[in-house]
């Protein structure tokens, strides 16, 4: 009888886990060595880690209290045991006491990761063999526990490393401070003496330079005064020549058959004083006055050499004059550090009082822009290789009908063949593309501005222009369309963000913040449309522009609206300003705004979706469809931004800096690409959206 009782007890112990009292076959089991007691793997692991033992070598069997040297599974393979880094308090203090704890943590991390990989393989095998649900759950629980343990090991390593580095940095800073104090105490007296000597040497050198410059200036002024003649210049004749004692312009002036012009020495002295930044210590008495009348050069130009050797760099200046001709001795070769400037004065009326009033001042931005336009004549900037009616008609047809057809097709696909989209998303995208389609119709047929790159000339030849619509109506219509498109884009983007992001996301904008940003966008575009509606009009050179060869196809429309060379608003005159407001300034601010607004929306939404991805997948029932729809919207916005900002930036840069080449064929290609992107950027975005829609449908 005792023998039978003992056999029954042993059999029961082998078949059930003594910790959870369930059969061993329901989960994975291990056998402890050397006592050979068997338990569920997770049960004995929790028993070990719940105790006060700090090392796996101190783990004991829960039945016989024998030290567990190792644990083996049913295949007699050794099961690794890991310290519960995520559960013990004061673990960092304990780990810090170990020698070479960094190597120990790294080795433990690798072993845990290997164990996780082995468990994943075992899970796949169990699923393939159709193990019980309890068996699979047991594997999942151990994988999750080891994953947390690996993260805890990594956190401990990071914390200890940061503390060690901070301590090292603190000691290093303290050492550096003490060394500096010691060095300052030892060398402070020697440094004072050394600095005093250096200051004396620098002062002496500065005095020598000033004396040298002052001497050169005196010599130059004396030379100029000696060349000045006190009597008026006779009228230029082929036989008249300058006196030998006054060698001013003895080469070019005599050869051209004219006498050199009268000097203004006191003005020269003032100019040179500003250029070389020195003081005039002596002034020749003959410099006090200047003759009231002087002769103009036959070619209507004057030359000026500005000496700026000592200064090295001077700001650009222009000379406001009344035919006060200034010459240096052309027999002398000017140094390379002199600046040479030549201006045309033939445009000044010769009947005006010829007073020698040489005034120097800085160039204003408007004058600088006019000088650039003079150098880059717009008459040579345009060329169309096939600039006849057929080319222009083909271009207008393709740029007009293609985006409209694509927009209609896209709307059809969105409403009828996009089951992966939620209804809300389809409505938002369809509303936005409806605005874009209306914008394309307006640009292609109602308004039809034809832009010419690289210099901006717009010719309105659309239906509204042909029907004689006033300029203000055209510009108001354009501004309102642009405003609606911008507000529609903002609405779609922020509607999507508020629907996709979870409530607790810190990137989620409130309704008030969203409408504030959209309101700012609307104000910017509407104000721009108001300004264009009130002050825009035909270019003063409209007739000359329409008579150009490449515009032969539009000559039958003399009533077309023509803007040329970034037209100036003729009615917008501010009393404080001396010139009218140039449209290029407005376009520059528009470009800056676009560079901030469009990429800002994209970066904002991308970061927000990345940060809230886990919560998004948990809270959104339509996570697959909306997530894919948002990706398509992001790609479309990037395409629209590129096609809008690239041609606009090209336009402004060429207007301000000039074209990189004068090759007319290159100009033609750049102009065609620029106007294609700028006018038809919505077409590019729609094509991109259609392609993404098709790819996603094929992937389902």
UniProtKB/TrEMBL annotation:
CDD domains (UniProt xref): RING-H2 (cd16448)
Q: Which gene encodes it?
A: WBGene00104746
Question: From what superkingdom does this record's organism come?
Answer: Eukaryota
- Provide one Gene Ontology cellular component: cell surface
Q: Which UniProt keywords apply?
A: Metal-binding, Secreted, Signal, Zinc, Zinc-finger
Family that this chain belongs to: Belongs to the nematode transthyretin-like family.
The keyword Cytoplasm appears for this protein: no
Q: Kindly list the places in or outside the cell where this protein is found, as annotated in its UniProt entry.
A: Secreted
Species of origin: Pristionchus pacificus (Parasitic nematode worm)
Q: Where is the major localization of this protein?
A: secreted
Q: What is this protein called?
A: G protein-coupled receptor
GO molecular-function term, one example from the UniProt record: zinc ion binding
**SMART domains (alphabetical):** RING
Do you know which InterPro entries this protein is assigned to?
7TM_GPCR_serpentine_rcpt_Sri, Transthyretin-like, Transthyretin-like_sf, Znf_RING, Znf_RING/FYVE/PHD
């Amino acid at each position: 009888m005792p023998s039978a009782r003992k056999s029954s007890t042993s059999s029961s112990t082998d078949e059930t886990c003594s910790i959870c009292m369930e059969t061993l076959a329901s989960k994975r089991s291990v056998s402890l060595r050397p006592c050979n007691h068997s338990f569920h793997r997770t049960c004995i692991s929790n028993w070990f880690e719940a105790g006060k033992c700090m090392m796996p070598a101190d783990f004991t069997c829960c039945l016989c209290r024998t030290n567990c040297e190792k644990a083996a599974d049913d295949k007699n393979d050794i099961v690794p045991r890991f310290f519960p880094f995520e559960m013990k308090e004061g673990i960092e203090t304990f780990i810090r006491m170990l020698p070479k704890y960094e190597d120990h943590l790294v080795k433990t991390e690798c072993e845990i990761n290997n164990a996780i990989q082995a468990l994943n393989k075992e899970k796949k095998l169990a699923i393939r063999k159709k193990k019980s649900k309890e068996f699979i759950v047991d594997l999942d629980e151990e994988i999750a526990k080891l994953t947390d343990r690996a993260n805890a090991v990594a956190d401990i390593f990071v914390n200890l490393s940061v503390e060690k580095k901070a301590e090292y940095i603190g000691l290093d800073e303290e050492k550096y401070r003490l060394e500096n104090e010691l060095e300052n105490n030892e060398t402070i007296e020697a440094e004072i003496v050394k600095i005093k000597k250096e200051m004396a040497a620098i002062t002496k050198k500065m005095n020598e330079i000033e004396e040298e410059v002052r001497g050169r200036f005196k010599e130059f002024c004396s030379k100029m005064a000696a060349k000045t003649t006190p009597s008026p210049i006779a009228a230029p004749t082929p036989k008249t020549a300058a006196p030998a004692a006054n060698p001013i312009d003895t080469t070019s002036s005599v050869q051209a058959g004219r006498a050199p012009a009268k000097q203004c020495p006191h003005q020269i002295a003032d100019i040179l004083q500003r250029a070389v930044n020195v003081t005039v210590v002596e002034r020749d008495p003959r410099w006090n006055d200047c003759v009231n009348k002087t002769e103009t050069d036959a070619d209507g130009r004057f030359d000026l050499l500005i000496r700026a050797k000592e200064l090295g760099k001077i700001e650009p200046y222009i000379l406001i004059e009344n035919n006060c001709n200034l010459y240096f001795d052309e027999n002398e070769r000017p140094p390379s550090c002199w600046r040479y400037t030549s201006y045309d004065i033939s445009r000044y009326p010769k009947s005006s009082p010829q007073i020698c009033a040489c005034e120097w001042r800085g160039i204003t931005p408007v004058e600088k822009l006019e000088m650039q336009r003079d150098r880059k004549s717009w008459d040579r900037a345009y060329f169309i290789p096939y600039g006849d009616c057929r080319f222009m008609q083909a271009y207008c047809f393709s740029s007009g009908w293609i985006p409209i057809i694509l927009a209609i097709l896209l709307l059809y696909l969105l409403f009828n063949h996009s089951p992966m989209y939620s209804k809300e998303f389809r409505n938002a995208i369809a509303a936005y593309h409806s605005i874009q389609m209306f914008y394309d119709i307006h640009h292609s047929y109602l308004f039809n501005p034809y832009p010419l790159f690289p210099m901006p000339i717009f010719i309105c030849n659309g239906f509204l222009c042909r029907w004689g619509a006033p300029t203000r109506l055209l510009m108001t219509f354009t501004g309102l369309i642009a405003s609606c498109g911008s507000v529609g884009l903002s609405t779609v983007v922020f509607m999507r963000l508020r629907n996709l992001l979870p409530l607790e996301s810190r990137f989620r904008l409130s309704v008030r913040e969203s409408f504030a940003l959209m309101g700012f966008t609307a104000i910017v575009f509407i104000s721009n449309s108001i300004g264009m509606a009130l002050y825009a009009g035909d270019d003063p050179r409209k007739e000359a522009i329409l008579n150009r060869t490449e515009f032969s196809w539009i000559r039958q429309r003399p009533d077309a609206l023509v803007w040329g060379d970034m037209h100036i608003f003729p009615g917008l005159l501010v009393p404080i300003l001396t010139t009218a407001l140039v449209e290029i300034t407005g376009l520059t601010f528009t470009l800056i705004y676009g560079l901030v607004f469009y990429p800002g929306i994209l970066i904002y939404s991308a970061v927000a979706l990345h940060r809230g991805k886990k919560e998004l997948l948990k809270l959104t029932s339509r996570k697959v469809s909306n997530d894919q729809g948002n990706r398509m919207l992001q790609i479309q916005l990037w395409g629209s931004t590129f096609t809008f900002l690239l041609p606009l930036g090209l336009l402004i840069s060429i207007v301000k800096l000039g074209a990189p080449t004068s090759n007319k064929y290159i100009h033609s290609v750049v102009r065609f690409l620029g106007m294609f992107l700028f006018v038809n950027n919505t077409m590019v975005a729609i094509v991109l959206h259609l392609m993404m829609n098709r790819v996603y449908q094929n992937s389902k």
